[in-house]
Amino acid sequence: MAPRKRITMHDHAAEASLFKRRALFTFVCVILLLGILLSNLYHLQIRSYTDYETRSNDNRIRVVPVAPSRGLIFDRHGKILAENQPFFTLELTPEKVKNIPETLARLSKIIPISADEQEDFTKSLKYHRRFKPLTLKTPLTEEQVAIFSVNQHDFPGISVVAGLKRHYPYNGLMTHALGYVGRINDKDKLRLQKEDKWKDYAGTKYIGKQGIEKFYENLLHGKPGHLEEEVNNRGRTIRTLKSVAPEPGQDIYLTLDLELQKKALELLDGRRGSVVAIDPRDGGILAMVSSPTYDPNQFVHGISSKAYGGLLNSRARPLINRATQGQYAPASTIKPHLALLGLDEKIVTPKTRVWDPGYWQIPGVERKYLDWKRWGHGWVDVNTALMGSCDTYFYDLAYKTGVDKIASFMRPFGFGERTGVDIFEESAGNMPSKDWKRMRYNQPWYIGDTISVGIGQGYWTTTPLQLANAAAIMANKGRRLVPHMLSSIKDNTSKIDSPVDEMAPIILNDQNNWDIINESMMNTAHKSRFKDAGYTAAMKTGTAQVFSVAEDEKYDAETIDEYLKDNALIIAYAPYENPEIVLAVVLENAGWGGVNAGPVARALLDEYMLRDNLEFN
Fold it and tell me: Where are the transmembrane segments (predicted)?
């Protein structure tokens, strides 16, 4: 017999109580979750509305920087020296191009892209943000722009962008004075960030690299503007919401004279050397030429490695600004300044005479310091010594004066110090002294060193600009003006003249000594190179040895290496009564100063002084 099933009795009261508790718990959870949801909605819709609206706009609105146009550069007569020209660039946005190598291969079939351009692009791509456009080729010709425009649909992510590029219409004529602009590199970026100027270069790819372009970058660059564009989810522009125009750079006018600059470069005729011309009335530089030169336009969009290597490795060193960085022995061009020292310190008087048999000797020493004229000048005083450039007279003067007194007197003329000209590429040269030699070589100073300094040789080096500046101080009878190239700045309404920077003048013990030396320089000029000039001039030539010749050896220009031949120099100014222009000319390895540098100085002064008459005729 099967057992009977147990009948389960339900406790309905207990079950009802359990259900109520569960229902209450569920209800509380629902209320809590609704509260959380409402709280989040409040946070999103009310408290964080502004923040999320901004983020939404950032996704919807694109801010595009607009580069300012660079200020123009003019010469003193308003002739343009640096301008802006339209150009086209091919740019690629990496994130929008699926297969870059394959795309470049297809693109090269319609637009030539050199191996160097592809290599530069590939290098830049490694450090570039993928959502930002990167230059692939620049500049494009109008034909290349047209070809790409027809085929653009086959190259998503690649576009042609228009802009303005710097252009120098006179090519290499003004290179070393103007400098050039080039692409902003990592070093430039770090400097701009350190100076808190990086934001001013939004949309700008170029910056002044040398010369005036670099020195006055803050004036020439301007301030960027921007466009606020509404874009869709694919990044395409729907409409422009706001436009803020950029502030263009300021135009600047220089003291340079274009026609005089042309004449100077023409006269150098490809020879290595430099010409500097200064207006002694205000310190404005009229001409600054360094030869050989190069075309700065090739640096604007990036010079090829091969072309740059050719400039960098050239023995003629075209990249060096010889006017401010070339360091040369001043030779006899500084004899007027040494004579002025001798007069002012009463070491000599205008009537003091020295016998020149063709050499000079230190008392008690056998060695002979030869004069350039082997048979000597006979009896000479300060005037005839300058006119004949008598070495013996200045050997004796230097010996009696001493190098420290020479150095102390010459420094106010600017020797051994940068002039302060408004470009960064400038050397200080060297004004030697006993302390200098001890610090530089840990050697004592010898009397023979002083004798060499007495004719502008030995350790004494100067730049052509320093030489012109020292000559200007002589012509101005002690008035000292800082050489400069900026004449005025043009703002929206007018031109603002640049102030003249003047230093304390050189005051002699006897101011009449200025007249004695300047008159001797005038006599020198009209005895030789300027005897038939239609104006009064003053001058002093120099011939600087590049290497030493032993006492018993003869200098033979026909047999020595070209780069070991003497340098030819001259300083000159006109008119003598009220100087308007001062020149310094240096020709490397050209030989005799009067014969080679002299004609250049004469032709330049003729160009400047007789210009009105020549134009009238």
Answer: 23-42
216: closest CA among 496, 493, 489, 481?
489
Summarize the annotated binding site as residue ranges: 356, 371, 377, 390
Q: Is 332 a catalytic residue?
A: yes
At 177-189, the pLDDT tens digits run 999 999 888 899 9
Between 258-268 and 593-609, two packed helices, what is the crossing angle to 10 degrees?
160
Taking only the tens place, the pLDDT of each residue in 428-448 is: 999 999 999 999 999 999 999
Q: Binding site for Zn(2+), residues? A: 356, 371, 377, 390
Query: Residue-wise over 242-259: b if at least 16 C-beta within 10 A, else e?
Result: eeeebebbbbbbbbbbbe
Which one-letter DSSP state was computed for residue 45? I
Cα–Cα dist 462/86, whole Å = 42
Instruction: Convert the pLDDT of each residue in 78-111 to its tens digit.
Output: 999 999 998 888 888 887 888 888 888 888 888 8
Task: Quote the pLDDT of residue 35.
Answer: 83
Contacts for 338 with CB less than 8 Å, ≥ 6 apart: 394, 397, 398, 401, 406, 454
Check: CB of residue 480 under 8 Å from CB of residue 503: yes
- Of the residues 291, 332, 433, 487, only one is catalytic, namely 332
pLDDT < 50 regions, the chain? 549-551, 555, 614-617
